[in-house]
């Protein structure tokens, strides 16, 4: 696994993570925790926080990777808290009305999350169309349920999910493709079983929120060294300090080669 701040320099193609946001729900300094995976068969967004277009512009400027909203055909939503989902309205409207031929991104989430996502979006997005009928989620997105008991294929990757310990239904994720595996903890309390599930990944992006219903740095620091060496930290409070050691905080605009 290697990471770098700008451009790609791998001699052979590997799956890449572009870090778009690292903040927690109360951050005044960072965008909401999120990323974009490029596995060679399209860009896949992990979560969709507010100010999403500004976030992609900033990440593109830092990384040297073009990140336009019209390039995203797959969005994976870990859960419905606003710091992970408030940008869906923007993406939905932009894809429907700001392209010559509006296309619907595929929206992947746990079934119970997909069942309720329109409750969040409808007050802003269900306005009557020219035909006089109210819009639905399917007018903006193509819902695709994640299966905690199986594997789904997304942009050339095998994607698995696991329900986490959080205040609302939330998914952790494993992405396998293009030479490596990426683990994404999702928002979660510290849970040994979840760590063990993520442990097969070459790189584990783990939240370190510190607040209630989140994982604390001290809990992760108690893990075996061979796991800690693969953990990168995200969803950290603005006032958190760099504790040092092998678990390094992620940086917005950073590009990580998974398995490279």
What does this molecule look like?
With 260 residues, the protein is α/β, with parallel strands linked by helices. It has a single domain (2-123, 135-257), classed as Ribonuclease Z/Hydroxyacylglutathione hydrolase-like (Metallo-beta-lactamase, Chain A, 4-Layer Sandwich). It has helices at 52-63, 82-85, 88-97, 111-125, 137-140, 192-198, 217-221, 225-228; strands at residues 2-4, 16-21, 34-38, 43-46, 72-76, 106-109, 142-145, 152-154, 157-163, 171-177, 180-184, 203-207, 231-234, 248-249, 255-257. It is globular, with a radius of gyration of 18 Å.
The CATH topology assignment is: Metallo-beta-lactamase, Chain A
- Radius of gyration, in angstroms, nearest whole number: 18 Å
Q: For the terminal residues, how far apart are their CA atoms?
A: 5 Å
Give the overall shape, derived from the CA principal axes.
globular
Strand order of the largest sheet: 1-15-2-3-4-5-6-7
Poorly predicted runs: 1-11
Query: What is the level-2 CATH architecture name?
Result: 4-Layer Sandwich
Fourth-tier CATH superfamily name: Ribonuclease Z/Hydroxyacylglutathione hydrolase-like
Task: Give a quick account of the main beta sheet: strands, pairing sense, barrel closure.
Answer: 8 strands, mixed
What is the helical fraction, as a range of percent? 10-25%
Give the total of domains.
1
- What is the structural class? alpha/beta
CATH class: Alpha Beta
Element pattern in H and E = EEEEHEHHEHHEEEEEHEHHEEE
Q: What's the structural blueprint in terms of helices and strands?
A:
Elements: E1 2-4, E2 16-21, E3 34-38, E4 43-46, H1 52-63, E5 72-76, H2 82-85, H3 88-97, E6 106-109, H4 111-125, H5 137-140, E7 142-145, E8 152-154, E9 157-163, E10 171-177, E11 180-184, H6 192-198, E12 203-207, H7 217-221, H8 225-228, E13 231-234, E14 248-249, E15 255-257
Parallel strand pairs: 4-5, 5-6, 6-7, 11-12, 12-13, 13-14
Antiparallel strand pairs: 1-15, 2-3, 2-15, 3-4, 8-9, 9-10, 10-11
């Amino acid at each position: 696994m290697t990471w770098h701040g700008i451009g790609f320099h791998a001699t052979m193609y590997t799956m890449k993570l572009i870090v778009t946001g690292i903040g927690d729900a109360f951050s005044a300094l960072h965008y909401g925790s999120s990323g974009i995976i490029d596995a060679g068969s399209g860009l896949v967004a992990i979560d969709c926080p507010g100010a999403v277009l500004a976030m992609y512009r900033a990440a593109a400027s830092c990384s040297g990777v073009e990140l336009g909203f019209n390039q995203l055909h797959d969005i994976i939503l870990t859960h419905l808290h606003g710091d992970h989902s408030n940008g869906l309205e923007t993406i939905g409207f932009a894809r429907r009305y700001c392209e010559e031929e509006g296309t619907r991104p595929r929206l992947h989430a746990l079934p119970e999350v997909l069942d309720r996502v329109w409750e969040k979006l409808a007050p802003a997005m269900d306005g009557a169309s020219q035909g006089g009928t109210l819009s639905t989620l399917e007018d903006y997105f193509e819902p695709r349920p994640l299966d905690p008991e199986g594997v789904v294929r997304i942009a050339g990757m095998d994607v698995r999910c696991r329900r986490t310990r959080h205040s609302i239904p939330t998914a952790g994720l494993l992405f396998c493709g293009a030479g490596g595996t990426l683990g994404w903890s999702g928002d979660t309390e510290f849970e040994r079983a979840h760590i063990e599930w993520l442990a097969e990944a070459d790189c584990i992006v783990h939240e370190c929120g510190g607040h209630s219903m989140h994982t604390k740095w001290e809990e992760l620091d108690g893990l075996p060294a061979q796991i800690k060496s693969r953990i990168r930290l995200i969803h950290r409070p603005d006032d958190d300090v760099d504790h040092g050691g092998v678990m390094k905080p992620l940086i917005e605009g950073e590009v990580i080669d998974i398995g490279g």
